[in-house]
Amino acid sequence: MTNTISSQLHLVRSVPHPPTWLLYHGRSRLRALVQRRCDVTLHGTVRVPAEGPVLFAANHLGVLDGPVLAAFAPRPVHIVTKAEMFVGPLGPLLRAAGQIPLDRFHYDPGAIKSCLRVLSEGHAVGIFPEGVRGDGELRTVRPGAAYLALATGAPVVPVLFFGTRAPGRGRSTVPAAGAAVDVVYGEPLVVSRAPWPRTRTQVENARAVLHAHLLRQLADAKRLTGRSLPGPPRSRHGSSEEQAR
């Protein structure tokens, strides 16, 4: 798989590969920190390709999703993270851990090239295709993951989180101490690689196929774990954000 996409590397050489030292050597410490707070159970890790490029596409419930993915994924993963998280004291740590900042409000070629470089070199990228923390039901899937899959041919592995946010809590809250967290890795989806230039129709078709696959895998994950998702996050004013809209 890496050979089939290595020709793209010349297109992204202007963007440095995200740092990797902390990504590889800090995972055990992050895992220990998360385990102090939560009881994490992993399901389906054998479905994750052991080598070559891979895209982890995860539902998004709360602030703990990124750390859990970074700590417990079967492979070190460069996670696409909103640029606002890189402002302040957390920024240097995220950069050192190889995470990729994304401007969610404007076209961000730098983030795309960083992802392409990581995948072209046979590594893993993590993305939250819903774009924001919410109820995690994958009602909306943005085209970014589909575009990267089209551009590289990398398999997309669904990641389904349960328990990373309690029902009725805000999107930036963490679950209570001792909370059970389940992480389910779904069946990989391979989208046929499309050469540049890729059309909007191609991207939209791939997005729709990926969306349907993610929904099927979410349904399977609910049956496997016997768990449900927490519903919409609480707004700052005490009502659900869904009701507030």
From TrEMBL:
GO cellular component, one term: plasma membrane
Keywords: Acyltransferase, Transferase
Transmembrane residue ranges: none
Region (Disordered): 221-245
Keyword Metal-binding tagged: no
UniProt-listed CDD domains: LPLAT_AGPAT-like
Pfam family, one: Acyltransferase
GO biological process, one term: phosphatidic acid biosynthetic process
Superkingdom per UniProt: Bacteria
UniProt xrefs under SMART domains: PlsC
InterPro entries: Plipid/glycerol_acylTrfase
Domain Phospholipid/glycerol acyltransferase: 54-164
GO molecular function: 1-acylglycerol-3-phosphate O-acyltransferase activity
Protein name: Lysophospholipid acyltransferase family protein
Taxonomic source organism: Kribbella sp. HUAS MG21
